[in-house]
Amino acid sequence: MTQVKQLAAVSAFLQRDHGHFINGLSQPGGGALRPVIDPATGNEVARVHDGCAEDVSAAMAAAQQAFLGSWSEMSTLARGNLMLKLADAMEQHREELAQIETLCSGKTIALSRGLEVDQAVAFLRYFAGWAGKIYGETTEISLPSFNGEKYRGFTQREPLGVVVGIIPWNFSIMIAIWKMAAALVCGCTVVLKPSEFTPLTMLRVAQLAADVGFPPGTINVLNGNGGLLGPLLIEHPFCAKVTFTGSVPTGRAVGNAASALAKPATLELGGKNAALFLADMSVSEMVDGIMEAGYVNQGQICASAERFYLPAEKMDEVLSVLIQRLSQLKVASPFEEDCQVGPLANKAHLEKILKMVARAKEDGDEILYGGYSPERPGYYFLPTVVKVHSENSTLMREETFGPVGSFLAYDDEEKALQQINNSPFGLAASVWTHNFNKAIRYSERIQAGIVWINMHTFLDPALPFGGIKSSGNGREFGSAFINDYTRLKSVMMRY
Length: 495
Ligand code: NAD
Known about the structure:
The chain is built from 17 helices and 22 strands. The chain has helices at about 10-15, 55-70, 70-75, 75-90, 95-105, 110-130, 175-185, 200-210, 225-235, 250-260, 285-295, 315-325, 345-360, 395, 415-420, 435-445, 480-485; strands at about 20, 25, 35-40, 45-50, 140, 150-160, 160-165, 190-195, 220, 240-245, 265-270, 275, 305-310, 365-370, 385, 405-410, 425, 430, 450-455, 470, 470-475, 485-495. It is of the alpha/beta class. The model has no long low-confidence stretch (mean pLDDT about 95). It starts with 7 loop residues before the first helix and ends with a strand. The chain has 2 domains: about 10-270 and about 470-495, 3-Layer(aba) Sandwich (Aldehyde Dehydrogenase, Chain A, domain 1); about 275-460, Aldehyde Dehydrogenase, Chain A, domain 2 (3-Layer(aba) Sandwich), CATH 3.40.309. The structure holds nicotinamide-adenine-dinucleotide. Nicotinamide-adenine-dinucleotide binds near residues 169, 254, 270 and 271. Belongs to the aldehyde dehydrogenase family. GO terms for molecular function: oxidoreductase activity, acting on the aldehyde or oxo group of donors, NAD or NADP as acceptor.
């Protein structure tokens, strides 16, 4: 099958001196150069300057100035129109953005186009549609009237100010757009901090935003070491809110830093998501469901399932068909059009997953398929099937964030439900059955921010998304995001 040819625009972009995007301009900055590694080859494809305290000050000052000036002076509909123009520009540059994303993250080119860029565009348009639709309320006031005077009160929603958005490496455009678009449509401005592993795509998106007319300072991108820049950004006096997507330990540090200063924080963190298959599903339906829930993008989706609960009587047959299906997937360069298994996103992640598989063996789990890297350059790891015998196995408790499905047999649905809820996480889950009565009842009992029925991992901009327990707080999408990016101002009058 054909290998995608690198666009001239991508080659030219990679050659540039990269750093940050501040106040409407690409600004390399003077920090140490960090290599960007293509995970499919292990080769360096670009270099990006790390940011420092001066870059943080410059980005925050630019964002604050835009927040108080050009962005707040623009009508809400004009803001929405700019967001729509950016969506159009991203669509026009779809292939370019997809190729840059695949180079940095190893995502297959098909997923970079169809999921990363197309979904980012869809979410951006959804949020743009909220422009002019963010309302307060009027209210009766019950104060006594001595001389015929009357009262009226109303609330209005005010933007919080400069929002710091901290982004992981798994969907470097789409997750950045979730945060950026929610902030912008509420009237906030943003400073985005991409992952060290995927620093390039949002630099390109920010340039497109400047090209379509976003005022300087509305969208800023700051690259570099999260451990250094994160606290500086959150503690900066102009930071009004932080919205973070990433791992639980980093999320806790972010939450603590924000709460110490009484700043609001939205935390979208990791999970150990469960998929419960009831015995009325056929073997092939179960296998289709498992492939959808656990193995897309090599499992590097926060909502992917990693714990699978199967009826004991069907377990062995399901796993044998699943292994057949997985063994037929094409392992290839993510730039091959028909690649189905690309590399993991970075070396550190591969090493973490290899360690977790080693621990699974110590726990007595059976690695039935995969569990190792195939012989080829880059950070590849085969889709893996593990039969576990206890809910206490490491693989049933800790997130791999990779293509490692852990399968536990159950005899009793009630017990399976208890095991699903016996987890520190609560991001997502799914129930698979033709018995809708049970599906709805079980969805009510499963402790997770989202429960899918006969589907898994699909997100829609109209449906709020976010975790409970250690998986975080706050909700993105729907109308729920409005609370997180605005504050209520009350006004009372006498007449
Ligand atoms: P990570 O926590 O290592 O890094 C996330 C971001 O935080 C990066 O930009 C990093 O530079 C920055 N960072 C690091 N230290 C920081 C600090 N002290 N203060 C502020 N920022 C800091 O996560 P990752 O490895 O990039 O992403 C994988 C994780 O993200 C997985 O656990 C996955 O489940 C989670 N995730 C969750 C969701 C969700 O919506 N719930 C979505 C995608 C990914």
